[in-house]
C-alpha cells in the first residue's frame, strides 16, 4: 500500500511539474499565430467588407485559436477537425434555424446537440463548432440573412485563413509540428520537395 501511495505521489508530482513548466518560446509562437490568424480575419472584415455585410469574424474563431495555436498536439485541433467541425456545425445551425426560427429555447440546444453528434459521427469533433452552431440560431441581423452561405463565409473561409496561419507558425521551429497526422506531413513534404526540384 505504501509503495502504491509513494508511486502515485511521484507520478503526480512529475505530472504537475511538467504541466507548470513555462516554455516562453512556445508561448511566443502561440501568441504570434493567434495574433496573425485573428488579425488577418479582423483586417479583412474592417477594411474590405461593406458595413451592411460586415460579418467575417465570429466568436468561435477565438476558441479555435486557443486549440490550433496553443494546443497543437490535441486531436481536436487538427485540420480535419477545425474545418469539418466548423462547417458541419454551421450547416446544422442554419438548418435548425430554418426549421425552428422563433423558439430559441428549443432551436439553441437542438443546434448544439445535433452539431456535437454529427461531429462525433464524422470524426471532426472541434469544441468551437458548438459555438458556430449556436451563433447561427441566436444571431440577429446579417447572419440569419446569409442562410447556408454562412457555412461558406465567414465559417469555411475563416477556417482556411486560420489553418494557413497555423501551418506556417506551428511548423516554423523544430519543436513545433502541426498537424500531428502523418498523412498531412507527407503531403506537405512532397509539395516542398517538388518546389525545390523546380
Identify the notable features of this structure and list them briefly.
0% strand; mainly alpha; 198 residues
Query: Can you summarize the main beta sheet?
Result: none
SSE-based structural type: mainly alpha
Number of helices: 9
Helical content stands at over 70%
Label the overall shape. globular
- β-strand number: 0
Order of helices and strands: HHHHHHHHH
Mean pLDDT comes to 87
- Poorly predicted parts: none
Distance between the termini: 65 Å
Present the secondary structure layout.
Blueprint: H1 2-19, H2 24-48, H3 60-70, H4 79-99, H5 104-121, H6 128-138, H7 142-146, H8 149-169, H9 182-197
Helix pairs in contact: 2-3, 2-8, 3-6, 3-8, 4-5, 4-6, 4-8, 5-6
Description:
The chain starts with a helix and ends with a helix. The protein is mainly α and 198 residues long. It has helices at 2-19, 24-48, 60-70, 79-99, 104-121, 128-138, 142-146, 149-169, 182-197. It contains nine helices and no strands. The protein is globular and about 60 Å long. Helices cover 74% and strands 0% of the residues.
Amino acid at each position: 500500500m505504501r509503495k502504491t501511495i509513494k508511486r502515485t505521489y511521484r507520478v503526480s508530482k512529475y505530472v504537475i511539474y511538467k504541466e507548470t513548466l513555462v516554455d516562453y518560446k512556445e508561448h511566443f509562437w502561440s501568441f504570434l499565430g493567434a495574433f496573425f490568424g485573428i488579425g488577418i480575419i479582423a483586417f479583412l472584415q474592417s477594411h474590405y467588407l461593406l458595413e451592411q455585410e460586415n460579418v467575417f469574424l465570429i466568436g468561435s474563431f477565438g476558441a479555435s485559436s486557443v486549440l490550433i495555436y496553443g494546443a497543437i498536439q490535441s486531436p481536436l485541433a487538427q485540420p480535419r477537425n477545425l474545418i469539418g467541425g466548423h462547417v458541419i456545425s454551421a450547416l446544422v445551425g442554419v438548418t435548425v434555424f430554418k426549421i425552428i426560427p422563433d423558439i430559441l429555447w428549443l432551436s439553441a440546444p437542438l443546434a448544439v446537440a445535433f452539431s456535437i453528434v454529427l461531429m462525433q459521427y464524422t470524426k471532426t469533433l472541434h469544441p468551437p463548432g458548438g459555438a458556430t452552431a449556436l451563433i447561427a440560431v441566436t444571431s440577429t441581423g446579417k447572419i440569419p440573412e446569409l442562410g447556408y452561405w454562412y457555412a461558406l463565409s465567414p465559417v469555411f473561409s475563416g477556417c482556411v485563413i486560420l489553418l494557413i496561419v497555423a501551418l506556417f507558425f506551428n511548423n516554423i521551429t523544430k519543436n513545433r509540428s502541426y498537424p500531428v497526422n502523418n498523412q498531412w506531413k507527407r503531403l506537405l513534404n512532397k509539395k516542398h520537395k517538388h518546389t525545390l526540384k523546380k
